[in-house]
Design a protein that fits this description.
The protein has about 200 residues and is an alpha+beta fold. It has one domain. About 35% of the residues lie in helices and about 25% in strands. It has 6 helices and 8 strands. Strands 1, 2, 3, 4, 5, 6, 7 and 8 form an 8-stranded mixed sheet that branches. A hairpin with a 3-residue loop joins strand 5 and strand 6. The longest helix has 19 residues. The chain is globular. It starts with 7 loop residues before the first helix and ends with a helix.
Length: about 200
């Protein structure tokens, strides 16, 4: 078994997770973020990524540049990993490749704790990625604890590139914000991701 095999039902049953649906945990008064011309230029290829329609195209043209912009704004104090093998507890199915992992360490060669945000790219139906992303969040929580770097919250993101859905894991409880957030305005999306990366 691997992250991609998990359903929401399995997450609840196998890990004793309680899921709260619909509660917004994101602050409403996030500061304005200045978006670089570099990112705005990259996002001009958005129609191409949408037309191609693959997770790879969306990851490369939309998601990765946005996460690297978060890293830039935070002056490289975080690390962003793409396609990272994240084998935490294979005997429990907590193994496999994560599309993106953000860590509060500036070290980019090796994933260091704490892992704080896990981003899963999906083509269209964000609901299909819920179980997988939740399993990755649980793995991050356990990874952090094993390194002696437990933190109050681990965040999960499922995105098509144009739509973003956010989750928060605290203890044994996952809060799922059922509002989908749009790519535009990009400064608001960046503010959310920066808030998550600095919690």
């Amino acid at each position: 078994m691997a992250y991609s095999s998990f359903t929401v039902t399995q997450i609840k049953e196998e890990f004793g997770i309680v899921i709260r649906e619909g509660d917004r945990f994101l602050p409403t008064d996030l500061p304005k973020i200045s978006v670089s011309q570099r990112l705005l230029g990259i996002l001009e290829d958005l129609p191409w990524a949408i037309a191609v329609g693959t997770e790879k195209a969306r990851s490369e043209v939309i998601i990765n540049p946005i996460l690297l912009e978060v890293r830039r704004v935070l002056q490289q104090k975080i690390s962003v990993f793409s396609g990272e093998e994240f084998n935490v507890e294979p005997e429990l199915g907590l193994n496999g490749v994560c599309d993106f992992v953000i860590s509060q360490s500036s070290e980019q060669l090796v994933l260091e704790a704490p892992a704080i945000v896990l981003v899963e790219a999906k083509k269209a139906d964000l609901k299909l990625g819920l179980g997988q992303c939740m399993a990755e969040m649980i793995a991050a929580q356990r990874f952090n604890a094993s390194k002696g770097r437990s933190i109050p919250s681990v965040f999960g993101v499922i995105t098509s590139g144009t739509q973003w859905r956010f989750m928060q894991l605290e203890g044994k409880e996952i809060t799922l914000d059922l509002q989908d957030y749009s790519l535009q305005p990009i400064d608001e999306l960046l503010a959310i991701l920066i808030w998550m990366a600095t919690r």
